[in-house]
Design goal:
The chain is α/β, with parallel strands linked by helices and about 450 residues long. The chain has 2 domains: about 90 residues, Immunoglobulin-like (Sandwich); about 325 residues, TIM Barrel. The protein is built from 11 helices and 18 strands. α10 links the parallel β8 and β9. The longest helix is centred in the middle third of the chain and has 17 residues. The radius of gyration is 23 Å and the shape is elongated. Bound molecules: alpha-D-glucopyranose. Alpha-D-glucopyranose (GLC) binds next to loops.
Length: about 450
């Protein structure tokens, strides 16, 4: 937003500590990536009421399973999904292999409740997506729900969700753990390189969580499960959206709808930053993850870009969600925004890819990233006519990257603070970027 009235306001910001980054070279791609596409897709998409529809209405398992008969994403085209992500400047896709309704989007031998048994479709979405991602150099991460609203052996009777789904029989928890292990083995064996497994649902069994009404903690056998994953694919990165600090075996820290260190949505209460792991925050493009026909509350392209930049300013990736329509197509509103974000990443992606958090802590008006001796200061709006920053090294050059024009600065000899003159700058509607190269 361009402000016509300029205030004489000097912003002095001191350095913030940098997040340490992963030391595992096989995980370097993840921090290089900074931007990924989250895809929530399954039989719930048919009902157009989000991925929680089974729990929310609630719908009993025997009724819900009728969806298998008419789930027919005939227009699903892995090429289009991957191209949409790639053109937006995204480097990976995280796909719901199995969400809380327990439906498997691949050819699993562990359950009949899967995509191959959809009479009108019967194609393995994970396979088609994996093949296309591998071809296009896009990493594929698989979301895998720990919750299952349709199995009797998922310990629903102590969990916080799924009690309205009509189950009365109480199955054996160990059989559920073995089922998950067998499914994960399939996913990690039959589809080539899987860059990550993204677990979700741990919080269903948090007795103290204000979002759930769980009555006991279950033993998820995480070490066994994580070891299994790493034994099949050592470079596969494990993440778990449990809203707590990562535990051993987890390779990146997930934040849900919050930038690291913020807790605006209430999911990150008490979740401190691990300091030693790469980070990712996931966010919706409208309000819901799975397709919701009445949810037209889409974020603007500018808001999405600002969130992406602020995530990068925290040293984190943004995993931005789409919920394709039941026919398998991504909603046009999302496609349009992704194209527009792609125009920006195409020009200015260098200011986020492979960077770490920079000289200033992300603010509502901007953020900073850095890569080697290059610093990027992103200004979303003009907060004043000067910007003063403490830069530890001597400046070699500085310019407006988006205008490719020079920029004046002065150095305070006593403090070493550098003041940039913003007075005559035509501010960009989305992001004005100062590129600073230091010695
Ligand atoms: C929450 C929701 C789930 C969604 C996830 C994405 O955990 O329960 O539906 O998949 O967030 O982060």
């Amino acid at each position: 937003m361009r402000k016509t009235i300029l205030f004489l306001l000097i912003i002095t910001i001191s350095c913030i500590s940098m997040q340490s980054q992963t030391s595992n070279p096989n995980h370097a791609w993840f921090e290089e990536a900074r931007f990924g596409l989250f895809v929530h897709f399954g039989p719930y998409s048919v009902l157009g009421d989000g991925e929680w529809v089974m729990q929310n209405r609630p719908i009993k398992v025997q009724e819900y399973k009728k969806l298998q008969k008419f789930f027919n994403p005939q227009d699903f085209d892995a090429k289009t999904w991957v191209k949409t992500a790639k053109d937006a400047g995204m480097k990976y896709i995280t796909f719901t292999s199995r969400h809380h309704d327990g439906f498997s989007n691949w050819d699993t031998k562990q359950s009949e409740w899967n995509i191959m048994n959809t009479p009108h479709f019967g194609r393995d979405i994970v396979k088609e997506l994996a093949d296309e991602c591998h071809k296009e150099g896009i990493k594929l991460v698989l979301y895998y729900s720990l919750i299952d609203w349709s199995r009797n052996d998922y310990q629903y009777w102590t969990g916080g969700t799924g009690q309205g789904c009509g189950r009365t029989e109480k199955g054996d928890w160990n059989s559920y753990i073995n089922f998950m292990k067998a499914q994960l083995t399939e996913l990690l064996t039959n589809y080539g390189e899987i860059a990550g497994i993204w677990f979700d649902g741990d919080w269903d069994q948090h007795p103290k969580d204000s979002h759930t009404h769980a009555t006991s903690n279950v033993n998820w056998h995480y070490q066994e499960i994580y070891d299994l994953i790493h034994s099949i694919q050592p470079n596969c990165m494990v993440s778990n959206n449990h809203h707590k600090e990562p535990i051993q075996g987890e390779d990146y820290q997930a934040f849900e709808r919050d930038l690291p260190g913020e807790n605006k949505n209430g999911f990150s209460d008490g979740q401190t930053i691990s300091q030693h792991l790469p980070m990712e925050t996931c966010e919706t493009m409208n309000q819901t993850w799975g397709y919701n026909i009445t949810d037209t509350n889409f974020k603007s392209t500018t808001e999405i870009i600002h969130y992406l930049v602020r995530a990068a300013g925290h040293g984190a990736n943004l995993l931005l969600n789409v919920g394709p329509m039941p026919n398998g197509e991504i909603q046009p509103e999302s496609v349009q925004r992704l194209q527009e974000v792609g125009n920006w990443t195409n020009k200015f992606g260098q200011t986020i890819y492979g960077t770490k958090s920079g000289l200033i802590k992300p603010q509502s008006w901007g953020a900073a990233t850095q890569k080697g001796k290059t610093h990027y200061i992103h200004l979303f709006e003009q907060e004043g006519n000067q910007l003063t920053i403490n830069i530890p090294n001597k400046i070699k050059s500085a310019r407006w990257l988006n205008l490719d024009s020079p920029l004046n600065w002065t150095v305070d000899k006593k403090t070493g603070n550098v003041t940039f003159d913003l007075l005559d700058t035509p501010f960009d509607d989305i992001d004005s970027i100062i590129e600073i190269i230091v010695q």
